[in-house]
Design a protein that fits this description.
The chain is α+β, with helices and mostly antiparallel strands. Helix content is 19%, strand content 19%. Strand 7 and strand 8 (126-131) form a beta hairpin.
Length: 223
């Protein structure tokens, strides 16, 4: 029943279309219905293209902390080749004097700055600057001429720390060029130096005056 119904509707529509045709030149030309509108041609689609990959993101450079520079310079042993050589606080002839080094004193060179060398006295553990011309790679002649200890000589008895402390203080005071090294020292007029002593004045020559100033490392280096 439904098939017949649809077939009948199709015949009716076909008849309507035939009635709207007008003959021209022996051939019928179909006149479009005024109400009909020509279907618009579908827009051409561009050929399928693969999606463009997103631009690579620039990696953010993270600044890594730079480790502090390390001083890889090795200490080099040298000998003092002058009498009462000044160990200064800075590489300058006008800098404060920290100590005085005797002829033949062995020091460790830690670095250089022009005509100056930064050295360390292993006995007092003090570091300062000495003119490079007053240092030598070889032991001074006067020092070498001292009689050498024979290998067959018996080992000397170990010196007690109290005696070593006294010797370190005495050597430090003896290296001071003036008379007022320590507060208990006396000047040329026989007066006690007190606050006028080099020990009491900061920033200058610093002699070792008291047992508390002597460290364990100084005692071990003295042996």
């Amino acid at each position: 029943m439904q098939k017949r119904y649809w077939l009948l509707c199709g015949l009716i529509l076909l008849g309507i279309v035939k009635l709207g045709e007008t003959p021209e030149g022996g051939r019928g030309v179909a006149t479009p219905s005024p109400t009909s509108t020509a279907p618009s041609a579908p827009a051409k689609l561009p050929p399928d293209q693969p999606p463009k990959p997103p631009p690579p993101s620039t990696p953010v450079k993270r600044s890594t902390p730079v480790p502090p520079a390390q001083n890889t310079e090795r200490a080099e042993p040298k000998f003092v080749r002058g009498n009462s050589v000044a160990l200064r606080q800075a590489p300058n002839a006008k800098a404060n004097i920290l100590d005085r080094l005797n002829l033949g004193k062995q020091v460790m060179v830690l670095g250089n700055d022009g005509l100056w060398s930064r050295v360390r006295d292993d006995l007092t553990q003090r570091e300062g600057w000495v003119a490079s011309r007053l240092l030598s790679d070889d032991e001074p002649v006067a020092k070498r001429e001292a009689p050498e200890v024979r290998e067959t000589v018996e080992v000397k008895p170990k010196i007690s720390p109290s005696i070593i402390i006294q010797r370190i203080i005495a050597e430090s005071i003896a290296g001071y060029p003036g008379t007022c090294a320590c507060p208990y020292s006396t000047d040329r007029r026989g007066r006690k130096c007190g606050t006028r002593s080099a020990y009491a004045k900061p920033g200058g020559y610093s002699p070792i005056c008291f047992a508390d100033d002597v460290t364990r490392s100084m005692i071990e280096a003295y042996n």
